[in-house]
Amino acid sequence: MKKKKNDKMIPPSSVKGEGKKQELILRQMESLGKLGHWEVDFIHQTLHWSEGVFHILEMDPSSMPVDLEKGYLFVHPEDRELATEHMKEVLEKGISYDLECRLVTTTGKVKYVHSLAEVIRNEKNEPMQIVGIFQDITEQREAYQSLLAQELRLSTILQSEPECVKVVSPDGILVEMNPAGLQMIEASNPEDAIGQKVENLVNPADLKFYQSIHHNALQGIKSSTRFRIIGLKGTERWMESTAVPLENQSGEIISVLSVTRDISEKVIAEEKLIRVKRNQEALINGTSDLIWSLDSNFCLIAANKAFLDVMGFLRGALAKEGDSVLIMSQGEAFYEKWKGYYERGLSGESFKTYERFISPITGKEEHREVFFNPIRNAENNITGLACFSKDITDLMAKRMELVASEKRYRALVENGIDVIAILSTEGRAKYVSPSITKVLGYSESDAMHMNLFDFLHPDDVTKITKRLEDVRHIPIGSSLPSHNFRIKHQDGSWRWVESTITNLIDDESIGGIVDNFHDVTERVFQITAIQTQNEKLKAIAWTQSHIVRNPLARIMGLVDLIKLGTLSREEELRSLDHLLESAKELDNIIQDIVLKSQRVIVP
Asked: Strand ranges (DSSP E) for 42-152?
């Protein structure tokens, strides 16, 4: 709206013809109602504000007159276009002036005002004047905004609430349900559920439970229950629901508000817990071990069947909770011993004892470990004692067998001719049997601080290194063929040993290379001597065979010559003489061979 610069300053209109009383009443009304009235003269381009307007804008009324341009400056910058356009439509289209906008006071406060006005027109329907009032509605607007914000928060909470929140009419029709509830009943959208009877979703077997809390709510009673629902897609769930009445302003119950949560996992866990508890009871009552607990007065709190049977046998009457666990029927010594055990436990000590006795029930020897542990409450005060008696009769029998077996094994190991050693892959001893002393003269302690290569003959190092490498690549539990090598005795001499190594590197109980070896020095020496003798005999036989051939050849030649029959008597006699000489020579050679053989073979 354009204004002429010369018409900016317009004096306020006077209240002519009105008395002071009416003026005072008007001021009081404007003050109480936070009202102000205003007038705009379009002919003279004048603007008038009442004192109420000045109070709303936090201005001194003496600051009048105010021009139109300055008046528009009090409108919030974001609302000025709205105010201008509305005034234009009022003047041009003839609509009612009804505007809500923000004003900025002289102190910078933002106030909401609601303005109503009437346009006064001439006979040509041209606007001459507009007269209106506006009211400060800041408090109402802020209250409304606060209410909207609160409603938004409540709506957000309701929408994000993980439990099902629903409103049901008195006749059981679903009126409203949050997204969590729609998801629980497997509804794709609200239209699938709103307007339907809730009872249709309840498992028929549990319908009476749901109906009870709905009926209670309609009677003004808050109540809770569990029931199963069957979702729209057929999924069954366990629900826990609390229903309360919803009342109108008159106090009439108009609907039922329910908060329902899915407890399917909880029910499954409870059922599992019940099964576990029953299984535990079956296990506890199915064992020969004794389990019981007592209070500070030595009275039985709880016990398994095995303990009740024993206690009943000793008492000569059926045992039950509340009975004293101190039994006099077995004698004073028995009574005092167990009383001492219980007093130790009730004093705060956790301990175990070993009991060996002849069972009065079976007549057989029994061995038991008995454990005592104090029971404490939340304030850490001792309120009782938990006891557990474990039957270790079979264990003790096996232990004694094991001890006997271990003694036999150790006797064999210590007195055997074989040395058993467990070596690392580098040849360091991890275990050496006591027979090491008998075989090589070293003590177990000395051997444990030595490496195989520390007393291995230098000529055998390469071979043994290769064997330790080879054994690592054969299957666990497999062995390499036995092998002889030389090792230094504690006295400095070299001894031959025969060794068999086995791969048990990955065996958890061994974790190394097992080497079984024994002294074969004498056998090696004997074999060596035999080989030497054989070589000497072979040399003697080869040498003597050439010497034997000469007289033998002569004998054979003379025999052939005589057989021809061409010799004279004299030649035959000479030939026989030569034959006898050759035979004597052969006899001497044979005696020499026998003599040399006797020198080689040790008797």
From this structure: 46-49, 97-104, 110-121, 127-136
Helix (H, G, I), strand (E, B) or coil at 64: coil
At CB < 8 A and 24+ separation, what contacts does 211-215 make?
213/241, 213/242, 213/243, 213/258, 214/168, 214/172, 214/243, 214/256
- The token pair that represents 293 in the structure block: 């607990």
pTM of the shown model: 0.38
Contact 533, 601 (CB under 8 A): yes
Three-state DSSP class for 595? helix
> What pLDDT, on the 0 to 100 scale, is given for residue 306?
87
Name residues whose C-beta falls within 8 Å of residue 383's C-beta, 6 or more positions apart in sequence: 295, 296, 375, 376, 377
**Which of 463, 453, 526 is CA-nearest to residue 487?**
453
Nearest to 263 by CA among 238, 296, 288: 238
Residue pLDDT, tens place only, 67-90: 777 777 888 999 989 988 998 898
Distance CA 130, CA 46 (A): 11
Pick from 504, 502, 495: which is nearest to 460 by CA? 495
In degrees rounded to 5, what are phi and psi of residue 350? -100, 125
Which residues lie closer than 8 Å to 542 by C-beta, 6 or more apart?
none
pLDDT at 10: 37
Can you tell me which residue has the tokens 């201008």? 84
Q: Measured between alpha carbons, how far is 483 from 391 in angstroms, rounded to an integer?
A: 51
Q: Are 335 and 314 in contact (CB under 8 A)?
A: no
Distant-in-sequence, close-in-space partners of 578: CB < 8 Å, separation ≥ 6: 554, 558
Can you list the domains of the chain with their CATH numbers?
30-142 (3.30.450.20), 161-268 (3.30.450.20), 286-396 (3.30.450.20), 416-602 (3.30.450.20)
CA quadruple 152, 158, 159, 160: dihedral sign: positive
